[in-house]
Each structure stands twice: as C-alpha cells, then as structure tokens.
Specification:
Elements: H1 10-36, H2 38-48, H3 58-77, E1 81-84, E2 89-96, E3 99-106, E4 115-117, E5 127-128
Antiparallel strand pairs: 1-2, 2-3, 3-4, 4-5
Helix pairs in contact: 1-3
C-alpha cells in the first residue's frame, strides 16, 4: 500500500477547524475517562492470565476505546496528525519554502491556525505564521 501524505494549505486547514474541534473535545474527554480505568484495566489484564479478568465498567471502557479509535481514524483519514489526546493537539502537513513543515493547532486556540513548526522541532519549536 502506498502512503501519500496530504499536504494542506493554510486555508484548507483553517476550513477544517470547525469540524475538527468537536471531535478533539470528544477525544480529550474519552481519553481522560479511559485513563481513569487504567488501573482496573491493568488488574483485569493481569488476572486474565489466570482465568479471571473482568472489571467493573469494562463495557464502558471498551466502548470508549472503540469510539476513540474511530475518531482517531477519521482524523488520520483526513490527513490530520493527532499529536496529543489530552490537549487536543493536531498538526497539518504544509509546504513552506520548499520543505514540509507542520501547521500546529490545539483546543483552546482560535478559529484559525497561527503556528507552524519543523517536523523535528515539535511543539516547543512553534513559530508564528
């Protein structure tokens, strides 16, 4: 299977923010709830080795994992890179001065992307557009 990275314009990325924001809010919420199950899930996993393994809230936990996976796959299918579930941090590949960089946006920011960074620099290397 050939993988071709979607390259966004600033305008294309900005047009997606209104539809992506609610997905990221759900991802952030689901991720926080999944983390609250972490200890019980680990205990159930360990007990499963010995024939046990049930956990209180297990069906809710499984549903959250499934929905989180669906939302993540939707973003990935659009070419959007989810970088941090807890912060709702996403990147859009973008061509800048002949090289691919990442347009960077996270929950709590405005309706337009204002930052970019080199692929290697990450969030700490954010530069205003």
């Amino acid at each position: 299977m050939d993988f071709e990275m979607k390259i966004f314009t600033v305008e294309e990325a900005n047009e997606l923010i209104p539809s992506v924001r609610p997905k990221l809010e759900t991802i952030k919420s689901h991720y926080a709830r999944i983390q609250s199950y972490r200890e019980n899930a680990m205990a159930a996993s360990n007990a499963a080795q010995f024939g046990g393994g049930g956990m209180k809230g297990g069906s809710d936990y499984a549903k959250l994992l499934f929905e989180l996976g669906q939302l993540t796959a939707e973003l990935d299918g659009q070419g959007i890179q989810l970088k941090d579930y807890a912060r709702g941090l996403i990147d859009f590949p973008y061509m800048h001065e002949g090289r691919i960089v990442l347009l960077c946006w996270q929950l709590g920011e405005g309706d337009e992307i204002e930052w970019w960074h080199d692929i290697e620099a990450g969030f700490q290397g954010r530069t205003p557009l």
